[in-house]
Amino acid sequence: MEPDPHEVARAIVLRQLTLAPRSRQQLRDKLRQRSCPDDVAEAVLDRMTEVGLVDDEAYAGMLVRSQQAGRGLARRALAQELRRKGIEDDVAAVALEGIPDDDEREQARRLVAKRLRTMHGLDATVQTRRLAGMLARKGYPSSLAFSVIREAIADAPEHQRD
After folding, report:
1. What are the CA-CA distances from residue 107 to residues 12, 50, 99, 124, 140 (Å)?
2. Which residues contact 124 (CB under 8 A, 6 or more apart)?
3. Full-model pTM
4. What is the rounded distance in angstroms from the CA atom of residue 12 to the CA atom of residue 6?
5. What contacts 24+ positions apart, CB below 8 Å, involve 59-64?
6. Are 105 and 84 in contact (CB under 8 A)?
7. Digits of tens for pLDDT over the chain (162 positions)?
8. Dist. CA 145–CA 36, nearest whole Å
9. First and final CA of the chain: distance in angstroms?
10. C-alpha count within 13 angstroms, C-beta hemisphere, residue 72
């Protein structure tokens, strides 16, 4: 007797969710990878959404908080990460609205201060270039990045005029 495709799909989704939170798109991709028919996948995902096990809004909010705190990512990089995980743009926009501009600037300051401690003795232009590259990879706008870097280098004891 063939196993019920809905039961198989439900088991796959539940196993994926026990490993880590997932977006609906990630779960859909996993079901497709396991040759689950699209109509069965959608039916199971709809039911999981109904009971609250699949919630892209909550997932997006959690991802934004953890990636901002853990990796220091800025809005642009967070938006890219959400898109990569299959979160729709309107859901991503709501999750990203929660990041105040001051938080992003403060996060950039912390990242620069931490990295600057490892760059003692390098020329200020080399430090600026490396710091700007790091902030760009984390999605910070260049205007914010250079403003924060200028302040940090001006305040660094090794660059103070005697």
Report:
1. 38, 36, 11, 21, 10
2. 153, 159
3. 0.80
4. 10
5. 59/21, 59/22, 59/23, 59/85, 59/87, 60/23, 60/87, 60/91, 60/92, 60/94, 60/95, 61/95, 61/98, 62/21, 63/21, 63/87, 63/95, 64/95, 64/96, 64/98, 64/99
6. no
7. 778 889 999 999 999 999 999 999 999 999 999 999 999 999 999 999 999 999 999 999 999 989 988 889 999 999 999 999 999 999 999 999 988 878 889 999 999 999 999 988 889 899 999 999 999 999 999 999 999 999 999 887 776 665
8. 46
9. 85
10. 17
Residue with tokens 């028919």: 37
C-alpha distances (whole Å) from 131 to each of 29, 62, 75, 126, 158 are: 37, 27, 18, 9, 16
**Residues 24, 46: Cα–Cα separation, whole Å:** 9
Residues 6+ apart with CB under 8 A from 73: 67, 81, 138, 139
